[in-house]
């Protein structure tokens, strides 16, 4: 990262993905400047709706990672105005501040911006047709970032699929994901049943958050000019999508398969299997049957290959959780 002219600013550092990015950047020896969205003991606050605060933050940075957002389908549906202000306008504000100061940007978008896939595997150039307020506002943010940065300042956008797993930070604290994997693990560790929304065959790409964070480090590294800048330099690329990557593992699982893996791990570790309950879905939106991604572009351009295998991670994680529960009961 020797060509970075300042620390790497991480917006949304108090969040799940931002926290993992901070941990991975720090582990890579990068000077990081984290910022939270709201008041926290650990990090200063930079609200992406506050143009002056964003400008001041970006000013001293050598690169910015924007992991700030109002995240989740229900959360954004409940407050569409906030979703628009944070995910759409906020992303544009960050990109504009980066452009003004020629600061490279790594932006986090979401698979929700794509909506129902027309072709599989989903690639960065797949048409966007979001089905939710969350996806729609993420798409506005994604487009704003591309429009503002193209030809002006290097930027990489990640269309993130479904991160799972626990983040250990250098400060010792851990953040759990909100994915179906984490949900099932928590239920199994507590001896509860695993509720699967019908039909259960819906398939999603799942990526460990640590692998997602490694991609962020690779992107920062690439933007800093120390590796393979030629393949992502906006002055050399004519197609803006060259610098957007779908960030997934390339491994997709149905919800029933995930529940089956958790149940099998539970049987192996405790001798008993949690019940699987098929439940009616809480939403009447049509279900996305499959969302698979091709990880090759990430590997080719950024040298990123996901390392975490879901099945072995589930076993290790459940074992750790059961052990922690036993220790706290004994204590
Ligand atoms: N987790 C997923 O499943 C997933 C999947 C695809 C894409 N993504 C994308 O990844 C990014 C991070 O998601 P996440 O899962 O880490 O979400 P998260 O855990 O909810 O974290 C969101 C972060 O954004 C910050 N934030 C919220 N409002 C803000 C504002 N007005 N100004 C500045 N910061 C603000 C929050 O700060 P405070 O908590 O301090 O307020 C928090 O640090 C988002 O762009 C999201 O769309 C996530």
From TrEMBL:
Q: Which GO terms describe its biological process?
A: galactose catabolic process via UDP-galactose, Leloir pathway
All copies of the NAD-dependent epimerase/dehydratase domain together span: 10-222
Q: What is this protein called?
A: NAD-dependent epimerase/dehydratase domain-containing protein
Matching entries from InterPro entries are given as: Epimerase_deHydtase, NAD(P)-bd_dom_sf
Q: Which family does it belong to?
A: Belongs to the NAD(P)-dependent epimerase/dehydratase family.
The superkingdom listed in its UniProt entry is Archaea
